[in-house]
Specification:
It contains three helices and ten strands. Helix 1 runs antiparallel to helix 3. With about 220 residues, the protein is of the alpha+beta class. Strands 1, 2, 3, 4, 5 and 8 form a six-stranded antiparallel β-sheet that branches.
Amino acid sequence: MIGNKKNRLTPPCVSTLALGLWVGMSFLFASATALGHGGVSMEEDMCLIKIGPYSAHFTGYLPQARASQEFCEDIPVVTNAIFVLDFISDELRAMDVDFRIVRDVKNIGNKASYEDLGGPEAVEKATIFYEKPKTYSAGTLSIRYPFVESGGYVGIIEAHHQATGLNYRSVFPFYVGGGHYARYLAYYALLFSFCGVFIWGSGRRSIFKPKPKTS
């Protein structure tokens, strides 16, 4: 007679599945936070934007929807937004700086570069907001814009050094409305569901293989 011990999931298999779940959750968290869009990145819990070799703190505010929260890149709801740049590099205080927001009409996403946008004419055509160049000697630039549609956008900041004639640019794609990550959530919900069924079924051999015959 064949023994009737339960076919339990072995410890190595459990460890492998647990590791897989942990990696999946970590990747999901990284995808949801979406750090590192274009010129904007998180460094030591601070949101920074690089404009050529120069740096500034970058912060987004939603005074009507979520007054107590700050955002680094993507805007979770369609509402009035405030973008604030605090110059870290003092050189930026002496430059003419402009700020532009364009629609991501090509749906390039968070890897969009200036070249991807199609050049100056295409950028101008897709522009929905433009703050002309001026000097911010106090070191702070503040922009308000009322978003009315969800979707992909691209921010463009340019700095012109009058003494040297050099120009520097930063491009940072972002999404308004929160729907950008729905596909990640759906994918990992399906992945976790499958892993849960697999773990449960591995402890109940009747799901994955027939019961052994007895004699």
